[in-house]
Structure formats: structure tokens, C-alpha cells
Amino acid sequence: MSKVDNNKKKKELAIYKAAFTLFTDCGIESTSISKITKTAGVAKGTFYLYFKSKYDLLDKLIIKKSNKIIFNAYENTLKNSYDNYEDRVISFINDIINLLIDQPILLKILHKKLSWGLFNEAIENKELSQIINKLIDDLYGNTVKDKLSKDDFYYTLFMILELTSSVCYNAIIKEKPTTIENMKPLLFNMIRKVLN
To answer: pTM for this one?
Structure first.
């Protein structure tokens, strides 16, 4: 990477970091582009080299953060062996939940959009699409073929992530209708039913 490219990457990263801090501290509506650029230490024009608006930045931030959570959970899941795909998916979801429990501020930014970043970005990003296909293959395994087609599993995983995201947001951030620890067994039972 050239010095110019490296400098551009540093500025973009500074904008992401400033936006994340400001969005979580002040809220999205109260955060202006001027505030973001001032905090990042970049010119306002630099912001527009990377983003169309603060909402474009928010969307990209959600994609980056949600994908990181999902892929960290995926890597953790690969470290273990499971008797069946249901246990593999539950472990994957449990890792996601634990990561979100540890980062409630991040969960506020994601606001029930955990799967949105992963699945939307995969449509436009060939490299990410290949990684997601690998994730699907690894979670799908060989044991599920008589129950769900691979395409159906893909859509089912999307629904499971949507459900998990919503449950986590409400149970971790608002503790409604109860805590995440109380919701986990119910969520896992529901996921098993969906997978069957």
C-alpha cells in the first residue's frame, strides 16, 4: 500500500471511529457531519470522498460492525465439533449473543440490523458473498440436507439472525420483556423448531 493510500485509509478509519463514538454518545440525530469531521481531525470535503451522508456512513458502519460480530462468532464455531447442524447453529447464535452482551453500545448502533449488513452487502460484494457461502456451507454441514435445501437454510439463517437481533436489542438494552439470560433458552428452543 502506497503512502497516499495508507493516509486515505487512516482518514477513513478516523471518520468511522469518530462517528461510532459520537453516534453512541450523542445519538445519530444529534450528530452532525461537522462534528464527525472535527472529531476525526479531517476536512469536511474528506468526509464526502467516502460517504454521501451521515446515514450512508451509519449504513456502512452497521455493515462493518455486524459482519465483524458474525464472522467472529463463525470462527469460534469452527473451533468446535458438533453432532448436528442444530447444535452448530445454536453455538453460532450463542457466540453472537455473548459478543453483543459484552458490547451493548455497539448493539445500540446496530439496532436490530445484525443480519442486514451481512446479507445486503453480500449481494454487491463478490468476496463477501464467497465468505458467506463458506459460512453457510460450514453451518449447513451434511446432516441437514434431508430437512432443508441449502437455499432454504440460507433464508432460515437470515430469519434466525433477524430474530436474534431483535431479541438481543430488547432483552439486553431494554431488559424487556426480560433479561437475555431468561430469553436465551426460549430463543434456542425456537431456533431448533425453525431448523426442523
So the answer is: 0.83
